[in-house]
């Protein structure tokens, strides 16, 4: 590779591309195309973007000899010290020779841009698979448990010559495991948090040679932060690196896949013992996710020692009970899938859940910036609940949700439209996990979120005087579904919830008046005005439920757009309308009840066979 040929490999911060300004979106697309083109010019065929994470973008291509390569680029927007980690990642990857780890091919640094080259792991990562399939079945989780246990053993037994030199991956989670369903094998990718362990599993120092002991400051941790949604308490609190870190990543991964969540934090409310897993296996996972270190370590030892036996159990696939979503959702047959983004009242929610009162004196701008850090101080169940809302937004879905915790009850109002019926089962699991987690929150309060299609977001730039630039005023789109009058019950009002303290934007009075008039027409939807110094974004989705009012509805939406042109203030304001008839009531539930894989699966299979032969 020559310096010149890959000079332009610069990729900016990720968001939904549809929410970037026109200029930034264009630049982002250009960069992606340049990357693809340059890799093409270097002789790689079928170049495609295969993944992106917090630290980089990952492309794949086929070399002239037919081998599949992967190119990982660090994000240029990150601090240099963070970007330098790609070189450390390259070093660690080059040290590992294991069939379950992609082969290292090389590292290049072109100006500030590092590029790590390695073999492409076959298949798809387990987070993507989990989003498509929903809860993994008992035999799948157990089989994966054994494979991951074997990787942990390999990493612990790594040697430098004759000396033990255990390796910590440091970021084991579903999206870092690429699974090939044909060969039922996987690869562990993303070695960016990997280090040589300083301690063994029992806290004894590891020093592969005397030089290590002399050169490194052994009182300091060399550990790296992994994904805060999956790492265990020791790694989070900056303890010395140990193989225990990866035990925690494995337990979190198995738990997340079994429960259709994207983090480990739900385990108090939805324990592994409630997920239909074999009893012994569930107890090990719950033990490994315990808050008590001794219990965790004991369960970890048990996992390493007994997983080969546990995995020998006969776990045939059982006939599935038809899953029902705890809150309803509708399927849309529209071809175009939304690029879903969620907007929620999470700041206020976090403030309430802030048990240590550390957020009290923090203003909103800081809260945004340090959002991740603040999450550390929030209760586990609240974290899991927020993560489950983000998981919903990974589906092509639009709609809104409102959770209201009252004395002994949880009330959920919803309007959700899923745009891909193949994802119904998985989405049902995700929705049910969200409801169960909400049932586990005892604090009184309200949480609202809207899920909208970023593709429909209207963006208008301001000129130097602050006036909006456009040739023709864009209009707010809406769907029309005619519901029978008998199905229309008391409409939910936009204003019932009062003013949201996180929404600072003062809207022109006329907009409020239009929204008030809209409220008289039967519909669901949301509209969020996000006013920045140089542009205005209007996120929205609307579903008119009374076709006879189409003209009136459209006129009101057009008027909203006209009045929006007089917005001068900066901030966010929004309204959401949900159909009142869908309010569901749930009792609070601290911990879901036990449910295990049956001891005698054959009995169930036989009784099913008898039923079907009758
Ligand atoms: N060698 C590989 N073969 C196939 N796919 C890969 C490979 N490396 C990475 N990927 C894909 O790219 C995605 C992002 O890669 P990676 O996790 O290394 O990036 P990252 O920026 O460090 O992510 P994170 O934010 O999760 O730490 C992975 O989830 C996986 O889907």
TrEMBL record:
Keywords: ATP-binding, Kinase, Nucleotide-binding, Serine/threonine-protein kinase, Transferase
Pfam families assigned: Pkinase
A Gene Ontology term for the protein's cellular component: cytoplasm
Signal peptide segment: none
Recorded GO MF terms: ATP binding; protein serine/threonine kinase activity
Chain sites annotated for binding ATP: 72
Start and end residues of each Protein kinase domain: 44-310
Matching InterPro entries: Kinase-like_dom_sf, Prot_kinase_dom, Protein_kinase_ATP_BS, Ser_Thr_kinase
Domain of life per record: Bacteria
Protein name stated in the entry: Serine/threonine protein kinase
